[in-house]
Known about the structure:
Layout: E1 2-3, E2 17-18, H1 20-29, E3 37-41, E4 54-58, H2 59-73, E5 75-77, E6 84-86, H3 99-115
Antiparallel strand pairs: 1-2, 3-4, 5-6
The chain binds zinc ion (2 copies).
One zinc ion is lined by residues 40-41, 62, 65-66.
Amino acid sequence: MVKAPEEYPGKKYRGKYCYEHHLVIWGIENRILKENETTHHINEDKHDNKYENLRIVKRNEHNKFHLQTKKESNFHICDGCGKKFYRRVMKKHALFCSRNCYKNNWYKFQKIRDRS
Ligand SMILES: [Zn+2]
Ligand SMILES: [Zn+2]
């Protein structure tokens, strides 16, 4: 929460505080959020209240937003069979969709690494 300016028309807490991201939107778009709207932080860092990181979304669609971003970044193409699969990891090394794919393909990646 930050101190709201006198002229800020949005909701004030304890008479003088408001959310920083609401203030940022008001400052740039000159509007306050409607009852059914909320602010989504695009990089999911709730403390990053730069305007570029904010997006106004409908309250009932907000959850969907989070599921979607999570899903997209956790889909990987299996390095063995090429199948798309879901796992919550950062892709740094070869990734396989199953134990079987790993057993059948890990050596290919071993060879690549040995050559370099
Ligand atoms: Zn959000
Ligand atoms: Zn596979």
